[in-house]
Amino acid sequence: AGSKLREIFDKINNLLSGKSVQSGGRAVSVTQHPQALDFVFYKLAEKFVRQGEEEVASHHDAAFPIAVVASGIWEIHPRVGDLFLAHLHKKCPYSVPFYPALKEGTSMEEYQRILGYQVKDSMVEEQDNFLKRMSGMIRLYAALIQLRWPYGDQQGTHPHGLSYGWRWLAQMLNMEPLADVTATLLFDFLEVCGNALMKQYRVQFWKVMVLLQEAYVPRIEAITSSGQMGSLMRLKQFVQECVQEKKISLPTGALQPAFWKS
């Protein structure tokens, strides 16, 4: 509910602003230790990213309430935003976007970690699980760049707005695709913020969508094996329908004005 989200936001904002808040049955304040505020900034940013890879990965609609709180906190406390991006880029290099290359002297296990895989006792996580986590983080990012906390000071610009999403999309299409990963993340990103990008960039956006359909999807297809077709077909169908109908629907779970009255 909107009222519940406001409570959460106020509690986080109060904590970061030096006020005393109740946590675990006791009053805590960042004024209690000289490094407390730095610590809280760091852990909060880390938790936002973790909610992307865990909650949003399992429940796509969760991207919007988490992102709107993160966006509002970022606006008031820019340090959280810097740290959010740092955690996000480390856990999901594709959010830069960046495809890390294997450097000389790097072990295969370390390289898997750099790519974003979870490695435990030399065992690398399943590809499906890896893609699910990356999707969650990209969806959170795609929601965050288009959302603003509705009770904030709307005079200034969004601290990390749609222009960053436009840049991300352009950079993705300038890179050599990776099997499975590229198709999955392009679909996730466009499903969440395609509608917002369409409204903002209009003719330019449709030029990019046609380029994606005619030139980039075939490049993904060329490197995709038969076992990796699912993500490619989903992207292909999505782009085809959007270009044909000249529209991208609002994503499911998007926060409507009525939500804030709940």
Automatic annotation (TrEMBL):
Chief location bin: cytoplasm
InterPro entries from the UniProt entry: GLE1, GLE1-like_sf
Keyword annotations of the record: Coiled coil, Cytoplasm, mRNA transport, Nuclear pore complex, Nucleus, Protein transport, Translocation, Transport
Parts forming coiled coils: none
Pfam families: GLE1
One annotated GO biological process: poly(A)+ mRNA export from nucleus
GO MF terms held by the record: inositol hexakisphosphate binding; phospholipid binding; translation initiation factor binding
Gene3D superfamilies membership: GLE1-like
Domain of life: Eukaryota
Compartment(s) where it occurs, according to its Swiss-Prot or TrEMBL record: Cytoplasm; Nucleus, Nuclear pore complex
GO cellular component entries: cytoplasm; nuclear pore cytoplasmic filaments
Annotated signal sequence range: none
Function: Required for the export of mRNAs containing poly(A) tails from the nucleus into the cytoplasm. May be involved in the terminal step of the mRNA transport through the nuclear pore complex (NPC).
Family statement: Belongs to the GLE1 family.
Protein's UniProt name: mRNA export factor GLE1
Species, as recorded: Ramphastos sulfuratus
Phylogenetic classification of the source organism: Eukaryota, Metazoa, Chordata, Craniata, Vertebrata
